[in-house]
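yo

u said u wanted the structure for the complex thing, so here. seqs first:
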Amino acid sequence: MSENTPLLRAENVVVEYGSRRKANRVLHEVSLDVAAGECVGLVGESGSGKSTLGKAILGLVPVKSGKIFFDGRDITHLSGKERRALSKDIQVVFQDPYGSLNPNMTIGEILAEPLSTSGMDRTEARLIVAEMLERVHLPSNVIDRFPSEFSGGQRQRIAIARALVRKPRLIICDEPVSALDLTTQAAVLELLIELQRETGVAYLFVSHDLGVVRSICHRVAVMYRGNLVEVGDGDQITRDPQHPYSQRLLAASPVADPVLQAERRKEWLAMKDAQPAGAQ
Ligand code: ADP
Ligand code: MG
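structre next:
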């Protein structure tokens, strides 16, 4: 594909839940690009449609209209077989580190599974698994242990290693650190940044927390009630949010600096006064 072709392109994507007679439109013509190696943050309050966009890209919910392209190829409506083949290139890390790993499999089996499914022999798979554990800074002796023996942060490292094992080009990270305590969050975010530098993988990084997204993403897209209301660089959105909803989100995002926090609060209050309730 040419240099200008984004790795991922969502074009006017519409998703509805419910029946045809009583449809609930959750995404309203959402368009968004992610370049190869880029980290794009997708931020918005709970229920705004962030996970739904991730699921549409992964083929987990049907797209009513609009198109999704991966590396220039239309992937909006794929057969099960085509979708499984694409899972080599597009992976996902979910929020819940407790629910996302099969409790009956060892870490070694969990990480080797995607490789053996794609036909790799066991010796080679074992080597790659060891390499992945090293990449996510887990000791090689975890290989014969079970998920229940690990903390939330360690499980998330295992989930990340599993996502990376087939060298994908894009990972949808859906609130990957939201269930972790703050110190663990910082360590896992740092790991994600490091892995991006090492492997060139792109992330669509979903979070309700603008602070998290800003610290790791090149660009940030703000979702409000199923609409993308602002897309820009993280610094710009933090310094000078254009859309009133981005301003509100920023004011609500916890920051470590109490002076800055107080300033943001003041700005928020001033903005709320200026914006009648219900205005977008
Ligand atoms: P977010 O990830 O931003 O919190 P979601 O994409 O999960 O938001 O949800 C967007 C909207 O779609 C919400 O109103 C939610 O209740 C609704 N929704 C999500 N999943 C389903 C589903 N499987 N069936 C019906 N409605 C759903
Ligand atoms: Mg969600």
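The mean pLDDT is 88. The longest strand covers residues 23-34.
cya
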